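Q: Start with the shorter request: fold the first protein.
A: Done. Sequence, then structure:
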Amino acid sequence: MSSAPGAPMSWVSLLLTAWSSRAPSLLIVVMVSRDVGLRVGLEGVQTSMCSRWGSRVEEFNQGQDGDVVIGGLFNLHYRPPVIDQEFIKPPFYNPCTGLQVEPLKSVYAMEFAVEEINRNPLILPGVKLNYRILDGCGRHPWISYLASCPCLSDRHRFPNFFRTIPSDVYQAKTMARLALLFNWTWIGAIVENNDYGHLAIQTFQEEIKGSGVCLAFLEAVSRETIEEDAKRAATTVQHSTARVILIFCWYTDVRELFLQLAKRNVTDRQFLASEAWSTSSDLLQNVAILNVASGVLGVAIRSARIPGFKSFLQGLKPSNRPATLSLCTGRETLEGAQNIFTDTAHLRVAYNTYLAVYAAAHALHSFLSCPDKDSSPRDNSSTCSSPYNITHKELLEHLNKVNFTTPNGEEFFFQGADIPAAYDLVNWKTSSDGSLKLVLIGRVDGLELHLNKTSIQWTTGSSQVPISVCSESCPPGTRRANRKGEPVCCFDCIPCTDGEVSNETGSHQCRRCPVEFWSNPGNTACIPRKVDFLSFDETMGIILTTGAVSGVVVTTAVFVIFLCYYNTPVVRANNSELSFLLLLSLKLCFLCALVFIGRPSMWSCHLQQAAFGISFVLCVSCLQVKTIVVLAAFRSAQPGAGGLMKWFGPGKQRGSVFFFTSIQVIICTIWLSLSPPIPHRDLGFQGSKVNLECAMSSVVGFAVVLGYIGFLACLCLLLAFLARKLPDNFNEAKFITFSMLIFCAVWVAFIPAYISSPGKYSVAVEIFAILASSYGLLLCIFAPKCFIILLRPERNTKKQLMGR
């Protein structure tokens, strides 16, 4: 709790002051900074106590003299309004009215502590401790048992201040940890418009910084304008998407807010309560706000029991205090009374007062103790103090060093102005009769949470933790993308692109997979890429394999036909030896296509290009020699050219084919020796697969192989074109021309298609070029001959051959 609106900074110090008595007095100023004290009715108490306690500060004045007198200031009555505050003269206050139960209980806790200490021979032996208590009525902003403002921890500004309640810094940090614990990232806040609220929410925001928690809204309310402020705040809560609301306010302001929410039927919000209202009996017993307040989770001043205190309260009688209760008969009693005043099961504020008295007593004990107990005070006067010679500075030094164990077994000491942070975590549960009850569900030691999550009853009435987020957490496989102009808690979820993954909920970035891995279909994990190559069991591989095998079968069938009809004019007239060699080379061309299919290996990469280059050179060489023979035969029939054919006899024909082919063999040998194709995993290929291919270590070698085939093909085409119209019924030149046109067209189209095709598709393009050109040669050269041999045998005669 902090300063009230318009009040000076709250402070308290342990002061040495002189009362009207002759005994020295230690004044503990314990007056709260704002209208502290639970504003609850005293009907239950007044049935067995006096009906009138007086209405002026002077009328509540009790205490006795002693060796050392501890003074206390408590806000026993409501703070009266100021009248005629013109700032030209001291303000005038109305008389104090309305006795408050909790401050009254604290008064008797102080009295009980003093009497308990006096009975204890181990504390201040030989020194009688007594008290004097006055009602401050909320007129002055001093307090130590409820002063929680973080500003009071500043020893430079408040060097003499000590308190028995933790700084608000710790409860704000505790609330931040609760938000993180339950994954609440979208929280609304309503705070008191003073130091208490502003410093608390500032600490809360510092604690959640960088954790992904955002404030959906921040409303400030003031006690002077609470009705309007509560309406405004309730409207904000009603329209906000935040389901968890943090409230740092005084309980009377919370009551007004809850009443406004009840009017709007807003009953689905989870409230986080500060210690200023988390244990308020007034709120717990208010039926009008029952549906709104159910499930409140709050931080509370630590609770404790004071042994013997309940009996002490029940033994109070007006006859023992005639000075203060002059209008009582003296026979009133609290024996057997069960009410707020006599409830000592969970003492909070009163226990803070109890600790303050004990801290003062132990400081005095240390101050008055002699180093040598056997020596007399006269012999030890320089080191042994007297209760009649207490100095302010020396007592504060001993108070700084206080360290003792309370009757409860709790270790107590100061850390500067503060005590170690300790809180209760409480929950407002709905009991079987429909009322709200305060239930302890955990505790806080320092910043360590001890919480029984399963015992919490949330605002929904169930054990299911409420969800309060601006945007649902992005699932694995997506990343967060902040919305422009909105808090970081508000975002969209963008799917990771292929090759990137996010395997956590709420990922800010997608992570790219390593080069040998790829993202799974959900983009949640990197999996090894599948090795991709043109295999025999895939559709494209099956089609190409079928085409190659069919070519081999057809070529073999033509070979058998030519072998069976070897002596017929059609076979013999067209250089049967070269025809058989051509058929053999075509069969090799079809077979070499199969070497390109399947998983690339060292031997297949070496063999496939060499087999392809040599087979096609052999094939084109045969066609070239055939064309030359046709031209030579025609020229030899002319006068004066009778000896031309002797230069192109069978031996020369075979030698020419061997010569042209051997050049390609030499090219392939040099290429494969220096820089052969090798199996290669193409990791740069985008996709879920790694392309396994035969990489061309030397593109020059491959280009030379293709270039030589192209050179022979172009030369053959030129010669065939020149001989296409020679007068011969069985002239092959025109068929060779057609076949070479197809051959050249296929391989010219092959080059750009091969370069632009990715992965295994480049292999498929090369196989298709091999099969297309091979089928073109086979059909153009041998289909007409087979047609005559099988279907027009009457034309397969020498007469028909020489008909022209």
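Q: Next, the second protein, separately.
A: Sequence, then structure:
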Amino acid sequence: MTSERTQPTTLYPELDEDALKRYFEALTSGDTTHVAPARAAEIEEARAVALPVRVKIPGARGDELDGVLWKHLAGARERPAVIMPSPWTSLGWLVYVAQATRFAATGYNVLVYSARGFGASGGEVEVAGPLDVEDAGKAIDFLTDRVGAAPTALGFLGDSYGSGISQLIAARDERVHAVAALSTWGDVGEAFYENSTRHVAAVATLLSAAGDARLSERTRRAFDDLLADRNIEKTLEWAAERSPLTYVDALNRRSVPVFFAHAWHETLFPANQTLRMFQALTGPKRIDLSIGDHSGPEMTGMLGLPNRIWEDAHRFFAHHLKEVDNGVGGQDQVVSQVMWGAALESRPTWDAVTGSTERLYLTGSAVDGDGGLADKPDTGWSVRIQTGADTPATVADAIVTAGYAEMAGNPKVYAVNEIDRADAGVWASQPMAVTTKLRGIPRLHLAYTPSAHHSTLIAHLFDVSPDGAAHIVTHAPFTHLGKEPGQRVRAEIALQATGYDVPAGHRLLLVIDARDPFYGDANQPRATIDIAADDEDPSYLDIPLG
């Protein structure tokens, strides 16, 4: 079951469609009187180099794809190229006009197009299926034919939906030399079905945000099946075909350079599955991690404003497609923004993000009436959680939109004191003696006993200030199916990756409850979950330290 507040009707709430249309009209007509002075100067400079032309691209099965080609006034000659499949929005290619213009102005041939089933493109939405990959290949053919020369090097760039298509075509087509994938996924199955827990709010959001897009029968069935909790194995097979991780060996054989950008609190495609893809890549790679949620960190760049993620994407392509010696090749692979500030940290690899790990045991030692997180286990304690009730410990107020408040420095304040301890287990650390830098993936080992065959838990980790104000650091769901009632379950739960500074005097608070509107709930009515001390198998939280 999902909450209406978790289902936005667009994944791009900050985009001004009218402003983007005015920008494109000025590009094509040369009349810049209806755009801001800064945009007017940018457009006039770009028009001196290349002009955009609306095109229809012959796609798979004869379906035409709506697109725009930037034609250089210098005429046909060999030059690098960038192709950009659209995000999951009826706006289609329009969201790329500012950045595509910038690529064209710096010497690239550029083709943007609306993915099949969206906007004015033909066909039906296949969720980065084989027809989408075939479309991408035909887009390369079209670009080569229309400009009269094969690209000297070709990059695919996409945001959100287009990012998955970009990775998949790079794995299948040797004509693709580099990829930039913003707010992307590596494993669709894990994104939709994490720890056997259905991401119902994410799927409902995609359905809502699709608007008037034409979803194929197979696409709609996959979404409906996941929401209804049926045919899960078939849905995971469908997801594997659409997951870049399935084809990572093909990318590695050619050492395709890949640039990722992702948000720490991504609610549509949580970070860990993208990080698994990132870690599996053996070629040149980079990942930018930022405060916010899906597509939020790169949004200002889509509006034509300065944006570090788009800047890094341009530098990445300049290095790998134009052989510009701009330092990208020798830079650290991981650049992360620390919540909740503007500070950036660089590390040579993802493994280097975490310097050490500290183990905190769940104990019965009271901390303001709750259990403790301590350096040693203890005995004789137990916590019983009743299922069926939501608590104030939730992932976020809403998918996508909650991230904009985080980006503005106003993250949600949680009323953890209002959590009914009958509906949740709560464990608190002692106040931190110094600022504690959490860097990496916290891991929870939990031993519990359910009273029913199926059980779902959601683990939330909070930072709590001395005045009781709490901010969420990270979380993860976990579901166990088919266990005999009364038998012990041992859960290994990787919470989503984080880059977070817990100030001195603040405490870590672990909240485990049994319901969250973001997730499908496998719990049975009036069931209970018992978490208790176990001398042979104590429960603990491993926190990664920078």
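Q: Describe the second briefly.
A: The longest strand covers residues 356-367. Residues 362 and 373 are 5 Å apart (CA to CA).
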